[in-house]
Amino acid sequence: MVEHLQHYGVIRSKKVSEVMEAIDRALFVPEGTPPYVDSPMQIGYNATISAPHMHATCLQLLEENLKPGMHALDVGSGTGYLTACFALMVGPEGRAVGVEHIPELVASSIENIRKSAAAPLLKEGSLSVHVGDGRLGWPECAPYDAIHVGAAAPEIPPALIEQLKPGGRMVIPVGNMFQYLKVVDKNPDGSVSVRDETSVRYVPLTSQEAQLRGY
Ligand code: SAH
């Protein structure tokens, strides 16, 4: 899977290939789901684990903001796959936080992480996953060098911009029918620059009720 993503230029750095090799996707997909096929897979509760090429794209975009000691927030952490990747990249001196609004997914993501190479970081406390509305971010560990949002928001939640550190970067899908993966950079003077990276298709960033109703 990693070689395939390198061949197609989705993975362009050693760090991203190393972390995607270290965190085995097979530990994060439901039993009976093919782990290394490049498409999103159902994980229950009207949610999906993103396709490997989307995980790789987001890791590439955030690589410079996932250096050892940095703080990273994963909103809509789902299976915990990217949260675990972030934790490995920022290391024990850093902080990786996942926020997910379905309690059952938080519980299973913690089980997944426990089986993975990120388990010691979960034990030490530099990696944590919480039940909460990710549109509000996770102020306790703010400001963040990197914020990833794994579900499409109608607009960029203001709390997430607030919790981004100057020099920090957020990657967030925005839109309803037509979605773009936006790269939001907070400049050192606190101003914000936004650009579209690519068109994407994510499940919505919404309320727990709307999601469980089927949107
Ligand atoms: N990156 C995750 C993506 C999971 S799909 C992975 O690859 O496993 C998107 C996730 O966002 C779902 O798990 C869904 O439950 C969650 N979500 C949607 N709206 C949310 C909100 N307002 N707060 C927290 N999580 C939310």
What's the short story on this structure?
With 215 residues, this protein is an alpha/beta fold. Helix content is 30%, strand content 27%. The radius of gyration is 16 Å and the shape is globular.
Structure characterization notes:
The protein is α/β, with parallel strands linked by helices. The chain has a single domain, classed as Rossmann fold (3-Layer(aba) Sandwich). It contains 8 helices and 9 strands. It has helices spanning 2-7, 14-22, 52-62, 81-90, 103-114, 119-124, 158-162, 208-213; strands at 41-44, 47-49, 71-75, 95-100, 127-131, 144-149, 164-175, 179-186, 192-200. The strands form 2 sheets. Strands 5-4-3-6-7-8-9 form a 7-stranded mixed β-sheet. It has a two-stranded antiparallel sheet with strand order 1-2. Helix 7 links the parallel strand 6 (144-149) and strand 7 (164-175). The relative contact order is 0.14. The mean pLDDT is 97. The structure holds S-adenosyl-L-homocysteine. This is Protein-L-isoaspartate O-methyltransferase. One of its GO terms (cellular component) is cytoplasm.
